[in-house]
Design goal:
alpha+beta; seven-stranded antiparallel beta sheet; about 15% helix
Length: about 550
């Protein structure tokens, strides 16, 4: 399958191709069946009963899923039992199913209409976009009464919330809020770009793929009602611990306040010691001369801007006003109550072998030079160890150094002035005169640029000497590239260079307006594989984290 490939206990080889490869959404078109009475050739008509009820739809998570059994879950046990109404056949290559039920009486008809639909995904299921079979089993569901909807990972979230006691409308609102998507997208996101077209774009489809991945892993899914009371928390950020005299700690504190968009604000509080002396604020919160493009313009992203997290699993996070966006979901939860802190700490540092072995990058949350300070301590009741997978949804745009990336000493205040002031026709290749810096290529070369016309940029490769690369000379033409000017977060104007050369740099570069001048900016290249935007963390819950810090005296 082309989306995230799922696995129960071991990841299949095809997982490396993409993360969530399961298309399991079920278009659930409810239609009334026809029924009637006959006079049996003029005799007494038989007693009339309820008409047959027919349902039809499609099962998908990213694309259509075949070989999936659909049923009505009359007893609510999340399984298709032998006595429950089932589709006449498993889904075909188009993911469609058809289910017809003849109720015995009105009570049976009402029970059927009130039952959620299930789609049982087994190891013989195949995604339309990938011939490889699925390696594990899980169940998708959809709420009763959603004719014309789909059975999908997102309808599954809604149904779980309904089963947990929320009215349908409240469940829909809560899931839509936690994923930051419209309610309509919960029932049909097939118009969103597939990951073959854009690697895990910021869409409901990506949220569905991550949700399906968690289902396959046996992870934890939950939804919090929109108006549910929130509580203050102090959760694990990261800890690097050498000894009692040398450590750095980051704690994510929240007062529990939830904004109108369902976001809970977390502030990262840092502390630490070096050689027994407390670290200063400047050491704990370094503020290099760099700024990052956010939803509200340029921001230093130095820890003063909160992380905004929606509640539930999956959740959506905006870091530094949207400078970085990602979805995150709990794929494993382990009760570590009574377990050795040293053993659990070792496990946290090693990480999850299945995820690491299949291309997920672990973001370290604990680094300890020695586990001896933990002694024989054990975790108290209620302690959990959670593994969360995150999918980054955007690539950050940064002015790396506002002190050195200002062009021509601030001679240009707009991109138009920059274009007019550096024509390629005036360039001196021997001295790099008339060119603009465009970053470093390697240890002995810099990149420079000048403008051919209002739509084309000439890029040069020049000799230069480390570490400052300020003596560029002996330039040769590298490529001519189209460019365009657009406006992004907070009205910031960017000059973007198409088909930026030298893919080994893993960076795109361009020019932007900031603080009355024009600067170089950098941005990671778009991902070409899902694994490049996937990462995971292993963290303790609040109860476990509080006990761990107490044991270390932090």
């Amino acid at each position: 399958m082309k989306a995230f490939s799922y696995f129960p206990s071991a990841l299949p080889p095809r997982f490396g191709k993409s993360l969530m490869s399961i298309s399991v959404l079920t278009l659930l078109a409810a239609c009334g069946g026809g029924g009637g009475s006959s006079n049996n050739g003029g005799g007494t008509p038989p007693p009339s009963g309820p008409a047959a009820i027919s349902l039809g739809g499609t099962v998908v998570a990213d694309q259509a899923l075949s070989n999936v059994l659909v049923c009505a879950d009359l007893n609510g046990n999340q399984a298709c039992d032998t006595n429950e109404p089932k589709a006449a056949a498993a889904t075909g290559a188009d993911g469609r199913y058809a289910l017809t039920y003849q109720p015995a009486d009105d009570a049976a008809a009402s029970a059927f209409r009130a039952a959620p639909l299930l789609a049982q995904v087994g190891t013989n299921a195949v995604d339309a976009g990938d011939p490889d079979p699925i390696s594990g089993t899980f169940v998708l569901s959809a709420p009763a009464g959603k004719g014309g909807g789909q059975i999908s990972p997102l309808t599954t979230l809604v149904q779980k919330a309904v089963a947990g006691g929320l009215p349908l409308a409240d469940a829909e609102a809560a899931v839509a809020q936690q994923l930051a998507v419209p309610v309509a997208k919960l029932y049909d996101y097939q118009g969103d770009a597939r990951s073959a077209e854009a690697i895990l774009p910021d869409t409901a489809r990506t949220a569905a793929k991550l949700t399906a991945f968690a289902l396959e892993m046996g992870g934890v899914l939950n939804t919090v009602a929109v108006n549910a009371t929130a509580a203050a928390s102090s959760s694990q950020g990261s800890l690097t611990y050498t000894d009692a005299q040398n450590w750095r700690l980051a704690v994510r504190d929240s007062d529990g306040t939830v904004d109108a968009n369902g976001n809970n604000a977390q502030f990262e509080r840092r502390s630490g010691m070096a050689a027994g002396a407390p670290l200063s604020a400047a050491q704990l919160y370094p503020t290099p001369a760099s700024v990052t493009l956010t939803d509200t313009g340029w921001n230093r992203c130095d820890g003063t801007t909160p992380r905004l997290n929606t509640r539930g699993s999956p959740s959506r996070t905006l870091y530094c006003d949207g400078a970085t966006r990602f979805y995150s979901v709990t794929v494993a939860e382990q009760d570590v109550s009574g377990k050795s802190m040293a053993d659990v700490a070792a496990q946290m540092q090693v990480g999850n072998g299945q995820l690491s072995g299949n291309g997920f990058q672990q973001t370290a949350t604990l680094t300890m030079a020695s586990l001896a300070p933990l002694g024989s301590a054990t975790f108290p009741a209620g302690s959990l160890l959670r593994t969360n997978v995150s999918a980054q949804l955007n690539q950050t745009i940064t002015i790396n150094n506002t002190a050195t990336d200002l062009l021509a000493g601030g001679a240009f205040s707009t991109l138009e002035a920059l274009i007019a002031g550096r024509p390629a026709s005036a360039v001196n290749l021997a001295t790099a005169g008339g060119t603009l810096p465009l970053g470093i290529q390697d240890d002995t070369h810099s990149l420079r640029a000048a403008f051919v016309d209002g739509s084309t940029l000439q890029i040069y490769r020049c000799n230069a000497t480390a570490p400052n690369y300020s003596d560029s000379n002996n330039c040769t033409a590298l490529s001519q590239n189209a460019y365009s000017i657009d406006t992004s977060g907070g009205g910031v104007r960017l000059l973007r260079i198409a088909n930026f050369p030298l893919t080994s740099l893993n960076q795109l570069r361009g020019y932007t307006e900031y603080n009355g001048g024009v600067y170089q900016y950098r941005q990671p290249r778009p991902a070409t594989k899902e694994g490049q935007v996937l990462s995971y963390t292993v963290r303790l819950n609040n109860a476990g984290w509080a006990a761990f810090r107490t044991q270390l005296g932090l």
